[in-house]
C-alpha cells in the first residue's frame, strides 16, 4: 500500500496535464500514479467512484449518506471531480442527497453535472438547477414527458428494456466535448456502466465505520460461481482517513468476458 501525499506542486502539475491533455511522464510518486491516468486520459475515459463503510454500505436505510467518507476521502473525490469533464449521477442520488457536485475541498475546475433521469421524474426545483454552479445536463428517455429543468440542457435518448444504453450516454456527452467522465453513483447507475464494460477505473474508498445495514455501493447481476467474479488488477493507496482501492476494471471485464467464452466452448 502506498501513501498518497498531494503537494501543491504535484496538484498544479496534474491540473496542468488535465487542462492541456498533455501526455504524462511515467509516474514518479503515488499521487501521480493514482491521478495521472485520469488527468492524462486522451479520448474516452470513465472513472467510477464509491465511498463506502467497512461493511460496504453507502448510506443508512433512511438514505443518510453525508459523512461516510473521511476528510481525505472527500478531498480525493473532489480531486477526481476536478480532473474530469463531467460527473454523472442517477436521479435517486439527486432526490436523496441534493448534491452540488462541485469542487470545494481542493482548488480546481468544477465539471459539468449530468443527471440520468430516464422518466423525467425531477421537478425542476432541485438545488442543482438553482445554485449557479457548473452547467447541468439531464439525460431523459425520448418517450418521457416534457419536464422543465431550469437552466439545464436536456438530452433525450432511446430507452430500451434495460434503460438508456450507457454507451449512448457517453457518445452524447462526447458530442458535447465531454470525454473524461466520473460516474459518482448511486449503485444502480454505476452498475449499468460496469455491466456495459465501460468503466476504465473503479475507485472504492473505504472509511473506518460500520453502518450494519443500508444499500451497498455496487449491485451487479448475480453470479453463481466466484470464477465469474471480477478480479481486477488493483493498486491500494492510503489516503489518510480512508483506504482507496484503484481497480482497473476494463481489463478485468474483458478477461471475464473471455473466461465466459472459454467455458461456453468447453461445454
Ligand atoms: N457513498 C457514495 O459514494 C454515494 C455516491 C452517490 C450516491 N450514493 C447513495 O446512493 C443512493 C442512491 O443510489 P441508487 O442506486 O438508489 O440510485 P441512483 O443510481 O442515484 O439512481 C437510480 C435511478 O437512475 C436510473 N438510471 C440510472 N442509470 C440509468 C440508465 N442507464 N438508464 C435508465 N435509468 C437509469 C435508475 O433507473 P431504474 O429505476 O430503471 O433502475 C433509477 O431510477 C443514495 O442513498 C445516495 O446517498 C452514495
As for the CATH topology, it is Dihydrofolate Reductase, subunit A
What class do helices, strands and sheet pairing give? alpha/beta
CATH architecture: 3-Layer(aba) Sandwich
The unreliable regions are: 260-267
Gyration radius from CA atoms, angstroms? 18 Å
**Major β-sheet annotation:** 10 strands, mixed
The average pLDDT is 91
What separation lies between the terminal Cα atoms?
40 Å
The ordered string of helix (H) and strand (E) elements is EHHEHEHEEEHEHEEEH
Percentage of residues in strands: 15-25%
* Fourth CATH level, the homologous superfamily: Dihydrofolate Reductase, subunit A
Q: Please, could you describe this protein's structure?
A:
The chain has 267 residues and is α/β, with parallel strands linked by helices. It has a single domain (2-266), classed as Dihydrofolate Reductase, subunit A. The protein has helices at 8-20, 30-39, 71-83, 91-97, 166-175, 187-195, 249-266, and strands at 2-3, 45-52, 86-90, 112-116, 136-141, 153-157, 180-185, 201-206, 233-238, 243-248. The protein has a 10-stranded mixed β-sheet with strand order 1-9-10-8-2-7-3-4-5-6, sandwiched between helices. Helix 4 links the parallel strand 3 (86-90) and strand 4 (112-116). Helix 1 (8-20) packs parallel to helix 2. The N and C termini lie far apart (40 Å). Residues 260-267 have low confidence and may be disordered. It binds NADP nicotinamide-adenine-dinucleotide phosphate.
Amino acid at each position: 500500500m502506498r501513501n498518497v501525499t498531494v503537494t501543491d506542486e504535484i496538484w498544479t502539475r496534474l491540473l496542468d496535464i488535465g487542462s492541456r491533455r498533455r501526455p504524462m511522464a511515467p509516474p514518479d510518486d503515488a499521487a501521480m500514479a493514482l491521478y495521472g491516468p485520469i488527468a492524462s486520459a486522451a479520448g474516452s475515459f470513465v472513472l467510477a467512484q464509491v465511498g463506502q463503510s467497512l461493511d460496504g454500505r453507502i448510506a443508512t436505510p433512511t438514505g443518510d449518506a453525508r459523512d461516510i467518507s473521511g476528510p481525505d476521502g472527500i478531498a480525493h473525490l473532489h480531486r477526481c471531480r476536478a480532473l474530469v469533464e463531467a460527473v454523472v449521477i442517477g436521479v435517486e442520488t439527486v432526490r436523496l442527497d441534493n448534491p452540488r457536485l462541485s469542487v470545494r475541498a481542493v482548488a480546481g475546475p468544477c465539471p459539468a453535472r449530468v443527471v440520468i433521469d430516464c422518466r423525467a421524474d425531477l421537478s425542476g426545483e432541485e438545488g442543482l438547477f438553482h445554485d449557479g454552479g457548473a452547467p447541468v445536463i439531464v439525460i431523459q428517455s425520448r418517450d418521457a414527458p416534457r419536464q422543465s429543468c431550469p437552466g439545464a440542457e436536456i438530452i433525450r435518448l432511446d430507452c430500451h428494456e434495460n434503460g438508456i444504453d450507457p454507451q449512448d450516454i457517453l457518445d452524447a456527452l462526447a458530442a458535447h466535448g465531454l470525454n473524461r467522465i466520473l460516474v459518482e453513483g448511486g449503485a444502480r447507475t454505476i452498475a449499468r456502466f460496469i455491466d456495459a464494460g465501460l468503466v476504465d477505473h473503479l475507485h472504492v474508498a473505504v472509511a473506518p465505520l460500520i453502518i450494519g445495514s443500508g444499500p451497498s455501493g455496487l449491485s451487479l447481476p448475480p453470479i453463481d460461481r466466484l470464477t465469474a467474479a471480477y478480479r481486477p488488477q488493483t493498486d491500494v493507496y492510503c489516503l489518510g482517513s480512508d483506504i482507496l482501492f484503484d481497480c482497473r476494471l476494463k481489463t478485468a471485464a474483458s478477461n471475464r468476458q473471455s473466461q465466459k467464452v472459454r467455458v461456453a466452448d468447453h461445454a
